[in-house]
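Render this sequence as a predicted structure.
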Amino acid sequence: MKRILSLLSTLVIVLFAAAPVPLAAQDEGNQDSGISRRTGRAPEPFKGFNSYEEFHGSVTSSETLLKLDSSLGYDFNQYAGVFVGVPLYFVHDSAPAAGENLSGSATGDVYFGVDLYAPTPVVNYSTTFTVSAPTGSVSKGFSTGHRTLDWTNRLRRKIGRLAPFLAAGISNTVPDSDLITRTFTSLGNVIHLEEGAEYDLTRRVYAGASAYHVIPFGTQNVVNQLNGSQPADRGPGNGNDGLGDGNAQAPPPASPAVNENRIRENGVALWLGFEPTRVVRVEAGYSRSLTFALNRFSFNVGLNVGRLFKERVRQE
């Protein structure tokens, strides 16, 4: 499986190294709505306030996690913008260690950030700096109680209907993505990588695939969102937590400071997206953690509230 991941990474790099595409094709790739930051889709060139609502869902064989992420931002131009937001989590575990159903909900940490874009005829580059303040509930496991930082860089290139992308970041926490919302929070330095591509099946429907990697270094702390300060019993580094036939056995619960292998992860993801308008985007996907033998089924609904409001103002 590692060989497959290596071949996928090589394929994406080769696609980026191909001959420059016509300018018209690149312009077509810039018409994305900007709802998703995962693949570095460039926003439309406008100035002013914007607002996004994103509703994520992630389901495994025993856990269900829902996340409502609300954000408000301001675009200075097509090259720079700032944003602030806060997530609201709903978590349910039907098979905890104690044998009883556990459910919980709480707000996560408030986050602030800066988006910078550098679109070119060959490739779109974007970089995002995000800082999270420890405003979430530590007792419920929705915050580590510390400030977290993330710096993510993305490259995306439009080649006809195909759009390969690369994403690389460094953080002191394991970040969520559009398709992977984790039932734990962490504190510790990590490098996170993702390489893949999206393909436009029609004007409104697209499919995507990627490989992702989390590479920790240094001391790591893990907090389960269902058990407060206790590390996740079946989470990172504890073997099978999915619908497959993982053979790894779960070790005893660890101390708050855990081994790097509890965080290290390699996996693959597949998704299908539908964008009926530039205001709404719906995605459904599947991801497989090769490290933890974990299967996830996910969905993501994005609403560009800022654009919706501006379109209604224009109509009036």
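Summary. The chain has one domain: 2-315. The two ends are 56 Å apart (CA to CA).
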